[in-house]
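Need tokens for this chain, all 122 residues.
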Amino acid sequence: MNIKVGTDIIEVTRIQESIEKLGEKFLNRVFTANEITYCESKKATKYEHYAARFAGKEAVFKAISPMLKNKFSIDWTDVEILNDEQSRPYVTFYKEELKNVNIDLSLSHIKAYAVATAILIL
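Here are the structure tokens for all 122 residues:
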């Protein structure tokens, strides 16, 4: 069994400033339409949710990086982070090479910070 872990933390204001400055250009480069819909539905805390998904994607990239090794590239929107019926985050890959990869993901956020941990078992 081979375990890979990725962790990331980000300041919520960094994501908020990027969204306010670059708008849809930033949103569409980093997030899928489903992620945008989810985060926008959170109204007053939407930037915390965007930041958590950003940290989640960074954590996922770190966990899967040994698999990449210049074999293929991955874009931000090749990874989608949503929540199941119990509000537990899950990852969907839209890159064919990653379709069978399973990641366990944990997200957390407060007003100032968002953090994520991704675990991959090979």
